[in-house]
Design a protein that fits this description.
- The protein has 401 residues and is α/β, with parallel strands linked by helices.
- The protein starts with a helix and ends in an 8-residue tail after the last helix.
- The chain is 31% helix and 24% strand.
- The chain has two domains: 242 residues, Alanine racemase (TIM Barrel, Alpha-Beta Barrel), CATH 3.20.20.10; 119 residues, Lyase, Ornithine Decarboxylase, Chain A, domain 1 (Beta Barrel).
- The longest helix is centred in the middle third of the chain and has 19 residues.
- It is globular.
- Bound molecules: pyridoxal-5'-phosphate (PLP).
- The site of pyridoxal-5'-phosphate has 16 residues, from helix 10.
- Homodimer.
Length: 401
């Protein structure tokens, strides 16, 4: 997308606003499938939590992708987007049994990460094949919030509990059709993936009716020019070879599954916000935008760094800024960043705003959540309207006091 197109989007639909480039999502999808082209049956399940707009889900469905979901609401969004239930995997953690029952009724693939739930499920639905999520006890991921496969993590069934899993399977006569793991996000080192994969292969040997092995996700994407990223091509070469060997030994061509979120949508998204005021203090120059961590929480939550470009004046002299929001708490997007000179009214574009940005947005400070636009076939398509005052009041019940 050209900067002029982005300015046009901001002027036509208003700011702040999220813009997603479908071409980038498509090319990332193709890049990952190409990397694993030596595997006979490959399946990508796009992780809905990253960006759950129904039009985006529809786009991935049109590419042949399935969906990875973590709540029954995500399942329903996927079905609404036209994805067939067998292409949706449901991997909840800590949900009530009724949510699993609902998922059974909807016909999606269920992934269980708790021994007690597995036992209950096996008793109640012995004929419904399930996948199990293991905890491989591998420390991986960009920071502690997104490292989920280690020994202290709440996710997955410990690999040391495998004998107990097998006992439940035997006693209930249930079928385990898949084994899954997800160790974390922002994993750079492919050796970490390969090490965890060996644990998954070892676990998988214990199950005789498998159809797929799901290696989760965690690919690190670049956040600025020349930034390092997971070498998915090299991972594809190495893991495909090992997977094909495993299938040979297992005696069946299984499906290799991944569930990428960030890899597919992070770089496709830009967040556009307008500069309300420029404020000089004794220590810095603040550029304050018409947004805050209510719309983009990742810098405050994870310390993630989104590159910021002044698309209204990209070629002015660069100056140092602290880019902050309008929230009543510290909401710093960037500190001491060199950005082309900013004036009030300029539009700033935040990069890598496709994944975990809109989907984590809130109404904090009673602000409206922004609109979303899909840039598709060289056209801006509004895929979510800006909220308005009625949206804030929608579920409030006013009582006489
Ligand atoms: C179970 C599971 N699968 C897939 C993902 C997607 O990870 P990423 O966005 O790093 O690709 C996550 C992220 O939290 C996850 O928890």
């Amino acid at each position: 997308m050209k900067q002029t197109d982005l300015l046009q989007v901001a002027s036509e639909f208003g700011s702040p606003i999220y813009v997603y480039d479908s071409e980038k999502m498509i090319s990332q999808y193709k890049r990952l499938t190409d990397a694993f082209k030596k595997v006979k049956h490959l399946r990508l399940h796009y992780a809905v939590k990253a960006l759950s707009n129904v039009s985006v889900l529809r786009l991935f469905n049109s590419l042949g992708s399935g969906l990875d979901t973590v709540s029954i609401q995500e399942v329903k969004l996927g079905l609404k987007a036209g994805v067939s239930p067998e292409n949706i995997i449901f991997t909840p953690n800590g949900v009530s049994f009724t949510e699993l029952e609902e998922a059974v009724q909807l016909g999606v693939q269920i992934n269980i990460d708790n021994l007690m739930i597995l036992e209950q499920f096996g008793h109640q639905y012995p004929k419904v094949p399930v996948c199990i999520r293991i905890n491989p006890h591998v420390m991986a991921g960009g920071n502690t919030n997104i490292s989920v496969g280690h020994i202290d993590s709440k996710f997955g069934i410990s690999i040391h509990q495998l004998p107990h899993v097998l006992r439940i399977v035997e006693n209930t006569k249930m079928t385990i059709n898949g084994v899954h793991m997800h160790t974390g996000s922002d994993i750079l080192d492919i050796e970490v993936f390969l090490h965890a994969a060996e644990i998954l292969f070892e676990t998988a040997k214990s199950f005789k009716n498998l159809e797929f092995l799901d290696f989760g996700s965690g690919f690190k994407v670049p956040y600025h020019e020349n930034d390092i990223e997971t070498d998915v091509e090299q991972l594809g070469q190495k893991l495909s070879k090992r997977f094909n060997q495993f299938c040979k030994d297992y005696g069946k061509d299984l499906t290799l599954a991944f569930e990428p979120g960030k890899f597919l949508v992070s770089e496709a998204g830009l967040f556009l916000a307008k500069v309300n005021v420029v404020k000089q203090t004794t220590s810095t120059v603040f550029a304050q935008i018409d947004s805050g961590f209510n719309h983009l929480i990742r810098p405050m939550l994870y310390g993630s760094k989104h590159e910021i470009i002044n698309i209204s004046h990209p070629r002015k002299q660069k100056r140092f800024y602290s880019v902050v929001g309008y929230i009543c708490e510290t909401d710093t997007f960037a500190n001491n960043k060199r950005i082309s000179e900013i004036s009030e009214g300029d539009i700033l574009a935040f990069k890598n705003a496709g994944a975990y940005c809109y989907s984590m947005a809130s109404n904090y400070n009673s602000r409206f959540r922004p609109a979303e636009v899909l840039w598709h076939n060289n056209e801006a398509k509004l895929i979510r309207k800006h909220e308005n005052f009625d949206d804030l009041l929608r579920n409030q019940v006013e009582v006489a006091i």
